[in-house]
Amino acid sequence: MRLIRRIFERKRQFIDKVQDKHVIYFLNSITNALVNSFSSFNDTVHYINSSLISLLHVERSFVFLFNEPKTKLRLFSCAGMLGMDVKNGTELSVANFFVKDLLENGDYIITDVSGDSRIPDLFRKVGSTYLLFAPLMFRKDSLGILVLDTKRDKTPFGEGDITYLEQFVGTLSIVIQNARIMERMRHKEAKLETVYKIANEMNSMNDLDALLNMILEEGLSLVDGRTGALMLLNEETQTLDIRCARGIGEDFIRSIHLHMGEGITGWAAKTGKVQRVDDVRNDPRYVKTNEEVRSELAAPLLVDRKVIGVIAVDSDEIHQFNDKDEELLAILASQAAIAINHQSMKKEIEELKRR
């Protein structure tokens, strides 16, 4: 009898070692190969999530990740037997019990969907039975949440599942963070290349109005702004006048003439520095032109340290813009100022020739 027990014990230990080797091999493959080969952050996250289905023998797996200001937790990838149209971008409330507990304590949570009224509606809609919530952490930074949904054998999750999951969640978080960093680097490089292409196009344009509209459009595109305006300094009145705008009513365009230091835009002109406001409702400088605006980024147009105008972009989301956006808009603004000044000089020369 003892001999039989020893045989079974050795067999169990062997199986455990094989499983450990399988997990390590799986994670090393992801870490060393996938992050460097996938073309996008989304592809990397989806690959990892899809792999979890077979590795952990669950019916569904969800990865929710934070946006940069950590105001929203969005579904980035869902895999498995969904049975309904679950769209990426679906949000979990950061005030939800599970989310708050995961963020504040970093604990794993196991729950029975039928017996817990606090479960987000998404999981009831897809027909979840049992859920295992796991925090995705990089060092002390919370990246998001991994949710495993219902084991294929229909048994509840237990402490053993948490122990098993803990073996590779940390590595998965590192993979996600590395993929995000690589995506940002690619994104920044592509944006900078776009800025310099724009600069070449701007300097070859002969129509000032067309140039100004192009600058504003490219500014909005570069930093994902929704609305905005390009204002030039009126030398006679010493006010900033709107020359082109998006998402601002015609009445505002005709009536707004900002003095230096007036509004966030005027402050950018007065200081000669980029101004970033995460929530305009909390900034008394903001001149309301659109009820939906929440954040603003304003960059001065400088020629020989003299302000000739300002490009301002807005968003209907708080904390929309970051340091990278400031840098990109500042670069665009410097190139735009040169192109606008070039246009003005050409116009002056042409007028002198006519005389």
Structure report:
With 355 residues, this protein is of the alpha+beta class. The chain is 49% helix and 24% strand. The chain folds into two domains: 182 residues, GAF domain (Beta-Lactamase, 2-Layer Sandwich); 150 residues, GAF domain (Beta-Lactamase, 2-Layer Sandwich). It has nine helices and twelve strands. The longest helix has 45 residues. It is elongated.
Please give a quick description of this structure:
This protein is of the alpha+beta class and 355 residues long.
Layout: helices, strands, pairs:
Elements: H1 2-37, H2 41-56, E1 58-66, E2 73-80, E3 91-92, H3 97-105, E4 109-112, H4 121-125, E5 130-138, E6 141-151, H5 159-203, H6 208-223, E7 227-234, E8 239-246, H7 250-255, E9 257-259, H8 263-271, E10 275-277, E11 295-303, E12 306-315, H9 323-354
Antiparallel strand pairs: 1-2, 1-6, 2-3, 4-5, 5-6, 7-8, 7-12, 8-9, 10-11, 11-12
Helix pairs in contact: 1-2, 1-5, 2-5, 5-6, 5-9, 6-9
Q: Treating each run of at least 4 consecutive H or I residues as one helix, how many helices? A: 9
CATH class of the largest domain: Alpha Beta
**Which series of helices and strands comes N to C?**
HHEEEHEHEEHHEEHEHEEEH
Number of domains: 2
The general outline is: elongated
CATH topology of the largest domain: Beta-Lactamase
Strand order of the largest sheet: 3-2-1-6-5-4
* Portion in helices: 40-55%
How many individual β-strands? 12
Task: State the major sheet.
Answer: 6 strands, antiparallel
Mean pLDDT level: 79
The secondary-structure class comes to: alpha+beta
| Strand residue percentage | 15-25%
Alpha carbon gap, first and last residue: 114 Å
